């Protein structure tokens, strides 16, 4: 068992090294350009996009080394399948719902029209926003790595809550160069506040992951919903709405930790049957 755990943790180290080196090297030209060290080139934007695939590249490479092409097929299948549809719907709606109601509560005293809270000005249509964000805005490039590969390895040694915090910290640090690169959402943000937010949502990612048998589709959907919420609602976010959202988010996390337990963030098999089974409770217990 000890050898197994050491092997799993070592693979996490390999994953981190490959991910960071791949991404940061490709981001370096635009970082140097943003800092005024070198001149700007439009090709830097292509390198930035390619660099965002670091987690996916590391995941697929290490999976191939460990399990061959069958391992690649298995992880790819998880990216497009989810048996427990309720969690898939939650992944789409949770963050947009919390954000919208936070804005609504903050805006009602100011006399906002309900439709004024929505804006689709970046790409024109909400479907386009979702599609573009899903494919090149982070979810597809990252979640085959963070949740598709690293999370289960971390949970082989640490409990679900601890693994969420560790992975959230790694995930946040991976973004660090973006805080100094022009035309990124992270520019002019507080890295500390960003890290706290990333760690908080990482708990929700783990909860969704553990209750869907590791569905990467759910992780990508949840990631996309967070990013689209940022695009749609950001122009209307105020200090008050942000505070209300933070309260809602923390209450949600606390309720999940209380209901599912911090060790696994997952219902027991018996509880799953009680919740989703049409059979009488007595029959389920038997």
Number of strands: 0
Radius of gyration: 20 Å
How far apart are the termini?
Answer: 33 Å
Proportion of beta-strand residues: under 5%
The tally of helices reads: 12
Q: How many individual domains? A: 1
Largest sheet: none
Give the helix/strand class.
mainly alpha
Order of helices and strands: HHHHHHHHHHHH
Shape: globular
Tell me briefly what this model is.
Helix content is 72%, strand content 0%. With 286 residues, the chain is an all-alpha fold.
Give a structural overview.
This protein is mostly helical and 286 residues long. It has one domain. 72% of the residues lie in helices and 0% in strands. It contains 12 helices and no strands. It has helices at 2-34, 43-51, 54-78, 85-107, 126-136, 139-155, 160-174, 191-210, 216-233, 239-260, 269-276, 281-285. α1 (2-34) runs antiparallel to α2, α3 packs across α6 and α4 (85-107) runs parallel beside α9 (216-233). The radius of gyration is 20 Å and the shape is globular. The model is unreliable at 273-286 (pLDDT under 50).
Q: Which terms would index this structure?
A:
single chain; 0% strand
Topology of this protein?
Layout (H helix, E strand, L loop, with lengths): L1 H33 L8 H9 L2 H25 L6 H23 L18 H11 L2 H17 L4 H15 L16 H20 L5 H18 L5 H22 L8 H8 L4 H5 L1
Helix pairs in contact: 1-2, 1-3, 1-6, 3-6, 4-9, 4-10, 5-9, 6-7, 6-9, 7-8, 8-10
């Amino acid at each position: 068992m000890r050898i197994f755990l050491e092997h799993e943790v070592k693979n996490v180290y390999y994953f981190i090294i490959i991910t960071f080196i791949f991404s940061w090297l490709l981001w370096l030209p635009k970082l140097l350009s943003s800092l005024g060290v070198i001149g700007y080139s439009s090709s830097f934007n292509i390198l930035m996009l390619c660099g965002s695939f670091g987690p996916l590249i590391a995941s697929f490479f290490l999976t191939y080394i460990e399990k061959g092409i069958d391992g690649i097929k298995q992880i790819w299948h998880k990216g497009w399948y989810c048996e427990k549809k309720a969690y898939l719907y939650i992944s789409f709606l949770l963050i947009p719902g919390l954000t919208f109601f936070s804005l609504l509560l903050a805006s009602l005293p100011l006399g906002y029209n309900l439709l004024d809270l929505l804006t689709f000005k970046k790409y024109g249509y909400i479907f386009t926003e979702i599609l573009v964000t899903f494919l090149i805005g982070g979810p597809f490039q990252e979640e085959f790595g963070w949740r598709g590969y690293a999370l289960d390895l971390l949970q082989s040694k640490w409990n679900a809550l601890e693994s969420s915090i560790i992975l959230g910290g790694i995930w946040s640090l991976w973004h660090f160069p973006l805080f100094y690169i022009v035309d990124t959402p992270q520019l002019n943000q507080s890295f500390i506040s960003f890290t706290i937010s990333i760690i908080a949502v990482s708990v929700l990612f783990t909860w969704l992951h553990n209750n869907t048998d590791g569905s990467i589709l759910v992780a990508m959907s949840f990631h996309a919903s967070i990013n689209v919420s940022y695009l749609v609602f950001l122009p209307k976010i105020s200090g008050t709405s942000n505070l209300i959202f933070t309260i809602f988010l923390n209450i949600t996390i606390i309720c999940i930790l209380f209901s599912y337990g911090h060790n696994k963030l997952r219902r027991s098999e018996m509880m799953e049957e009680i919740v989703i089974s049409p059979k009488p409770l007595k029959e389920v217990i038997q």
